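Retro notes
What went well: the complex prediction finally ran end to end.
Inputs used:
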Amino acid sequence: MNNSKQFAKMFTAQIKMMFREKQVWFWNIFFPIILMVIFMIIFGGGSSDSFKAKIAVVDPQPNATSGMLLEQLRQIPVLEFEDDAPVSKEIGTEWVEKQDINALIILPESESAATVQLIVNKEDEQGVTTQAVAGVLDKLVQQANLAVAGATETFRMTTESVSSGADDLSYADFLLTGMIGLSVAQGGLFGMVELVDMRRRGLMTRLRMTPANMNLYGMAGMLVRLMLGIIQIVILSLIGVFGFGASLHINVFSLAIALIAGGLVFNAMGYLFSSFSKTIEAYMGMANIASMLMMFLSGVFFPLETLPEWLQPVTQVLPLTYFVDGMRDGLIYASGIASSAFWIGIGIMILWGVVSFLIGSQVYKTKSISATR
Amino acid sequence: MPVLEVRNLKKAYGQVTAVADISFSVEAGEVFTIIGPNGAGKTTTLEMIEGLVTPDAGQIEFGPLNWARNSEQIKVTIGVQPQSSALFDLLTVEENLDLFASFYPKSRPTAEVLDMISLTDQRNKHVKKLSGGQKQRLAIGLAMINDPALIFLDEPTTGLDPQARRNIWDIILKLKELGKTTILTTHYMEEAEKLSDRVCIVDQGKIVTLDTPAALIERLTKEREVRLTLMDGEAAAIETEKIALLQSSVVRTNREGDSLQLWTTQPEETLYELFGFTKDRGFRVEQISIHEMSLEDVFIAFTGKEWRD
C-alpha cells in the first residue's frame, strides 16, 4: 500500500470522525460564537460604531496657545465634545466623576506655562479610551512643542495601532479577530485529547500492531484540524461581518502562514499535554489552564496595553499573543508578510511548537510501553 | 515447521513476575488455546508474542522472522484481536475495515470479511451503536483484514451471552477451515475443549500442561464420580453403599442421608451391579448422574485449585 493512499484513508476517516463528534461542533464553532456575541453586547455598545471618546475642555485663561490647542482638538474626529464651548473645571470634573465623559482636558493657563492636564475617572485609568485620549493629547502636545521650537517634523510615525485611536478600527473587528485566533488555538489545545482517548481505549496499541505509519496518521490529524481552523475562520468572519458590521481587509498569504504556524504550535502544545495525561480529565485540566491564562494575557478581548505594565513581558512570550496578532494582520490590516514583527511572531510560535513537540515525544519515549497502554 | 516458536519467555513488572518461563510451538493450521485464571500470564505472553511488550528473556520466532529484525514483515503476516476491542467508535463497520485495510500492502476484500463475521447488514452502522457481540466480531474482522496466516484472539468471548459466544466459535471454526492458525486465550474451559487442537494450561506464569483436550482428559485418573439418590430412605442408601464397596472397581464412597456418591474406575459395570441389587430389594432410585471429565477437572488436577470463571 503506498503512503499516499494510506494518508488519504486516514485523512477521510479522521474528517468523518471529527464531523460526527457533536462536541467538536459545540466547542469549536458554537461556543466561540456565543462568547463573541456576549462580549460584543457587553463591550461593543451593541453597535459597530467606530472608536469615539467623549471629552470636555476647560480653558481657564484663554490665550493663544490654549486657543490653538482647542482648535486642533476640535479637528480630531474621534473626540466628541460634550459641550462645544469650554466648561468650568468644576462642571468638567463632575462629568468625569459621573462618567458622562471619558476625559477632561485642561488647557494651559498661559502661553509660556504650557501644561496640558488630562483628568480621567480612576475606574477608567487603564481603559482603552483613556489610553487613546492620552495618546492623542500627547501627540498634540508634541506637535505644539515642535511648532513653538519652529521645527518641522523630521520623523513621522505612520503605523496605526489598535489602541491609540486608529479610527477605522472598531471593537467588532478587534474582538472578531481575537475570537477567531482564540478558537483556532483552542481547537489545537483541546483537540489532542483524542490521543489520550485513543490510548485509553487501546486504539494506539491496536494501531501499533499493524504496519500503519503513525507519522502519517498524525499528519492527517493535523490537516483535519487545519481544515477545522479554516471553517472556524470562515464562519466566525461571516457572523462578524454580517452580524456586527466588522470590516475585514484580508491578506490571504499572511493569514495562511499565521494559521499554519498556529496549527503547529497549539497542536504541539496539545501533544505535550497528552504525553503527561493518563486520563481525559487530566488533559482537559491542563488544556484549560493554558487556554485560560493565554485568553486573558494575549490580547484576545482587550488590547494588551490595557494590562498592567509588569504583565507585559509575560504577554510577549505567549504564543497566542502572536497568533492573534497574526490573525489580525491577515484579517484586518491586510499586512504582515512585509513586517518584521509578523515574522518574529511566527518565529516565536514555531519555537514554542518545536520545544513542546520535542518534550512531548521525549516523555512518550521514556514512558514504558505498558504505562502508555 | 512450526509457524510460531516460543522459548523460555520471561517477563517481570517490578517485583511481580508475570511470565516465569514459557515455551511452546504452534503448528500451521491448528487452533492453539492458552487457558488459565486471571493473572496467570496469558495476556502478557500474548503481548510479548505480538511485539507489544519486550520480554526480559527468551526467543520468539515466526518461522524465519523475529521482532528484532523483521517487525514490519511480522505485522503483515499476523492479525490481532486485543482484549479491549479497540475500534473507532465514530466510524461505521465498513469504514473501520477499510481504514485498517489501507495499512497493509494486501488485504482481503471488505465484503468477504463482512460476510465471515456476519456483519454485512450492519456495515453502515456506527460502531458505537453495535452490540457487544457485534463489536467483538468486528474486532476479529479487523484481525483478519490483511488475510493473515496467524491470528491472535485474546479472550474473544469474555462477557458475551451464549448466543454471541457461539457466533464467535463459528468464526473461529471458519478460520480453521481456511487453514489459518489461531492462537486463542479464553476463560471458558468449554470453549477450549470445543475449539482447540491443543490446549496449554498456564498458571502463575508457567505452563502447567500442554496437549490435545482429549489427551489431557485421558491423562487424568480413570475413576469417575457417580451420584445416585434413593427414594426409600437412609437405610436403603446404607445397604446400597455396602454393596457398592464390595466391588473392586469402586475406590471410595460418600453418603449424605439418602444420596450416595461413589468413585469408580468402571462406571457402567458398577451401575449394572447396583441396579441388579436395588431391583432385587425393590429400592427405587431417582437421579443418577455420571460426572463427565472436563478440562476443568484437568485444571483442578494439575493445579490443585478450584476453577473460577
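What we learned: Chain B touches chain A through 30 residues (CB under 8 Å).
What to try next: split runs per interface for comparison.
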